[in-house]
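User: I'm preparing a small set of examples for a lab meeting where we compare how different chains pack in three dimensions. I only have the primary sequence for this one, and I'd like the structure in token form so I can line it up with the others. Please keep the answer compact; I'll paste it straight into my notes.
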Amino acid sequence: MSGKNFDSPDETRRPFEKGRIDVVNLGGLTFYRETLEPGWQWSKHVKPVVGGESCQRFHVKIFLAGRQRIRMGDGTEMEFGPGDVAIMYPGHDAWVVGDEPNVLIELADAVRRKE
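Assistant: Understood. Below is the structure token output for the 115-residue chain.
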């Protein structure tokens, strides 16, 4: 048995404006705790760093606080909040809804999943 706490992460990243990612590696898996500030949007804050027209990563996320809205390339939208679990496929934009930070856990290794 093993365990870790996000309050003492293995690494903290600030790869883009309005975002923080705490990284925990455990049992061969990598987990992210993402904290996205109000006003954060993938197309405004991440796109300039990574390029492309939309996020091309596959995500498995568990939402803890705040709200996030996702728009797929075909225009389909969904909103997620505390207690929600989501799978997001490549080809989307995402943004924080409201005035509260959006906090979520992501199984980072899921981005390696092939469809």
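A couple of notes for your slides: Residues 11-112 form a domain with the Jelly Rolls fold (CATH 2.60.120.10). The beta strands are 11-13, 19-26, 29-36, 59-65, 67-72, 77-80, 85-88, 92-97, 102-107.

User: Perfect, thanks.
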